């Protein structure tokens, strides 16, 4: 692994390249750097979500997610290196089962809305999907382990579920899309 930065303004990227963890220089618009950037952005959005008032179990889970995303970024920064372990995906599966069991069945599509924490969870969900697409694109060009792709896929699902949980934490509910089908179903049940 490369040396940790002691200086931030190194000026080595002024020519449009950046250094990977193995000291290789690549273009800042490479697929690997796009994937790294999307994972970094996702981690930043997780940090913003952690600024909200959250139940302690949700907070602990999201803090662990931040550490796992940093592991994922580390793995992406060193071609051929594995840092994100399959157990991290299992942990997300367990969290999905736990939180999903608390929720009522969805009646219709929901909007990415509600309270601020839930809305931020939806932002995390969409950025996780983008990061997943970037990792898939990179995996189509270079050999990658399966765990990063699986982790991001599962994480986006978890953030959808947590958005629903967070809306209910303040006594709210899902914000349903006003579809003509839902309106007809509601009229038929009345």
From TrEMBL:
- Positions of the Cobalamin adenosyltransferase-like domain: 8-165
The kind of enzyme this is, by top-level EC class, is transferase
E.C. numbers? 2.5.1.-
Question: Which residue stretches does the UniProt record annotate as biased composition, category Low complexity?
Answer: 10-22
Key words of the record? ATP-binding, Cobalamin biosynthesis, Nucleotide-binding, Transferase
Where does the source fall among the domains of life? Bacteria
Region annotated Disordered, chain positions = 1-22
InterPro entries from the UniProt entry = CblAdoTrfase-like (IPR016030), CblAdoTrfase-like_sf (IPR036451), PduO-typ (IPR029499)
Q: What reactions does this protein catalyze? A: 2 cob(II)alamin + AH2 + 2 ATP = 2 adenosylcob(III)alamin + 2 triphosphate + A + 2 H(+)
The entry lists its GO molecular-function terms as:
corrinoid adenosyltransferase activity
Name the protein family.
Answer: Belongs to the Cob(I)alamin adenosyltransferase family.
User: What protein name is recorded for this chain?
Assistant: Cobalamin adenosyltransferase
Native organism is: Giesbergeria sinuosa
